[in-house]
Design brief:
Oligomer: single chain
Shape: elongated
Order of helices and strands: HHHHHHHHHHHHHHHHH
Number of helices: 17
Structural class: mainly alpha
């Protein structure tokens, strides 16, 4: 029978463990309980709460429990999947506080004071900014489980958080989820956001925010698929007193339609589609878009000129330009024959183009002659 010989050990030797290698037990409930005690001491005084949060960060681990911190500030406790609060098995143990956004007055003035609490906290602990953005993403995913009053509070808080720079406007795109769109949750949320923004600021800043968040052309998407029509959009937003939003959306829709026309025309030109086919397709597109003749000319001119690779020799470029444009005289003629405004637009666009491209300076007068004397050759 063999016996294992033990290795000699120096008496009193201690093996040191580096702090970073020590595993800390993740315990958001204990962190929440600590917060709840501090919140209770603050009463309903938000200034006292801000002071508590400022000093508590030196003792409590905000870096590891940032999500729980924002859960408590917004909902009053730890949010479980779906939007409900995580409750304790022990009924006598507190699991929530009423000192939170969801229990506050829903008026914008009252919520502004709450926004200041978040501002002070995030400025004091910069690392919380990223956690806050992640928290809002989670909050939005739970939106369906919140009461209508709490959705209103969140929408108004979103106005304050975005205007304060704590959230990018693109965060509103997170509302464009099927489960939020189909039951009008997304639509009602964005309407409340718009109304609150207009009360706090103005339409000019709202337009800038929507453009920055790349939402200016996506407003229709907040409506369910079966209601995504111009008529319903107009009626829905006008009923909410948001006529300016309807006007803004129509302007953006018009811009998108013009881009679409330009893209399709460029594709046809690059693919050398027959002239008659191009004229027919452009006429159909412009008719659907209800564009004025002058608007069509302003789109067609730069598109037609963009598909040419101009000769580098100045003495040859004039003939090249005239040959190229002669092919499309009938296309322009469709919109200039009965519109003096469209004629003037065509002249101005041609003049601007020639003056911007120095090699074409001598071509302008010949282009004018082409349109007004030689157009009948293609009829």
């Amino acid at each position: 029978m063999s016996t294992k010989i033990q290795k000699p050990v120096i008496q009193g030797q201690r093996i040191k463990t580096r702090k970073r290698d020590e595993k800390v037990k993740h315990d958001p409930v204990a962190f929440r309980d600590s917060l709840l005690r501090g919140f209770a001491e603050s009463g309903d005084d938000l200034d006292a709460l801000s002071k508590y949060l400022d000093t508590a960060g030196n003792k409590l681990d905000y870096k590891h429990y940032g999500e729980t911190l924002f859960d408590v500030l917004i909902a009053g406790g730890i949010l479980a999947p779906g939007g409900s609060l995580l409750q304790e098995a022990d009924e006598g143990k507190p699991y929530r506080t009423e000192l939170c956004v969801f229990e506050s007055d829903s008026e914008l003035a009252a919520l502004t004071k709450w926004a200041q609490v978040f501002t002070k906290l995030i400025r004091r602990y910069k690392y919380l900014e990223k956690m806050f953005k992640e928290e809002i993403g989670k909050i939005i995913s739970f939106m369906h489980g919140f009461s209508e009053q709490n959705r209103t509070r969140l929408s108004r808080m979103m106005v304050l958080w975005i205007s304060d720079g704590h959230l990018p406007p693109s965060v509103l795109q997170l509302m464009l989820k099927e489960h939020l769109i189909k039951d009008m949750v997304a639509a009602n949320f964005i309407v409340e956001f718009f109304c609150s923004w207009m009360k706090a600021k103005d339409m000019s800043s709202l337009k800038a925010t929507l453009k920055k968040g790349q939402l200016e052309s996506r407003l229709m998407e907040f409506l369910p698929a079966n209601k995504q029509t111009e008529a319903y959009f107009t009626e829905f937003f006008k009923e909410k007193g948001l006529s300016e939003i309807v006007t803004f959306w129509k302007q953006q829709a018009g811009k998108e339609a013009r881009k679409d026309l330009q893209t399709k025309l460029a594709d046809m030109l690059n693919n050398d589609e027959p002239r008659d086919v191009i004229i027919t397709n452009v006429r159909e597109l412009t008719s659907k878009l209800q564009l004025a003749d002058a608007e069509v000319v302003a789109i067609v001119w730069p598109t037609v000129m963009s598909v040419v690779e101009w000769n580098k020799k100045e003495e040859l470029i004039v003939d090249q330009a005239i040959r190229h444009l002669r092919e499309y005289v009938p296309l322009f003629k469709q919109y200039t024959d009965n519109s003096s405004r469209a004629q003037m637009t065509l002249i101005l666009k041609a003049q601007e183009y020639c003056y911007e491209n120095m090699n074409l300076m001598k071509t302008f007068s010949k282009i004018v002659i082409l349109f007004y004397k030689d157009s009948d050759e293609d009829d």
